[in-house]
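User: what does the whole thing look like in 3D?
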Amino acid sequence: MILKARQHEYRFPRPVLVMGIVNVTPDSFSDGGKYFDTDSAVAHALEMVQQGAEILDIGGESTRPGAEPVSEDEELRRVIPVVEKLAGSTQAALSIDTMKPAVARAALNAGASIVNDVGAGRSERKMWEAVAEFGAGYVVMHTPVNAAGMHEKPDYNNVLKEVGEFFTERLITLLNESGIASEQVVLDPGIGFGKKVEHNLQLLAGLGSFTKRQRPVLLGVSRKSFIEKLTGAKLNERLPASLACAILAVKSGVNIIRAHDVAETVQAVRMAEAILQQSNVERP
Ligand code: 9MG
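Assistant: Here's the predicted 3D structure for the full assembly of 284 residues, as structure tokens:
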């Protein structure tokens, strides 16, 4: 299985890719405001590369519940200088976390290679046109409703089945209608987006049903609020649970883990991979 994202090509199986989160926002749910200016965001991103991040996911609009929508101009003002500076200073692949086609296109022009679209192109086909034109990687993340309502919590008869059907439908539409090659596509079940705690747990337990689809699977669980609902852990106490999810995801064959705590995540997934490599050893 290959993932092509402009100049980057990843052949799987290979060690899990850790995608470091770069929030250029004053209000992200986790590290809002800390890296809001260009220089701090770039410095933080480069530190994550030192810690083992092979992809950096740069976002200028928070997707946390209740976050203020950001205008296109403001989002461009936040993220494009960061993408430009990073493109000139790291070999890591740059991913742009946006639902706006114009922001995606400007970021691709500035050197990004992946579009992380939590709206999965629902609003406008222009997103897909930009991805196809640049040969960029494209993260198709599941949200059950339109982007504006992504934190409503609908009921599912079978969340694994419905997310699987969403991927099938998106893959067919993308491949047939937009000129995006299957090798550019990454699937993401969208943990925490329009899901209750039990749906998140069912998806995490059933990740293997997505990893057998011959497309890389990305998982984002880092510090998410369902962890607090389940364990009571406040925002800055959620690393152990985030790592538990990451390790189980590695066991299920997930290929990319999106994380705030890159050093810890890299260490945990490398250890999990080393143990899994021994699983063929004959047992007495
Ligand atoms: C932007 N963002 C927040 N959470 C995410 C997740 O789980 N996956 C992806 N692809 N993006 C996310």
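In plain terms: Residues 59, 63, 97, 116, 118, 139, 141, 188, 190-191, 218, 220, 258 surround 9-methylguanine (CB under 6 Å). The first helix runs from residue 38 to 50.
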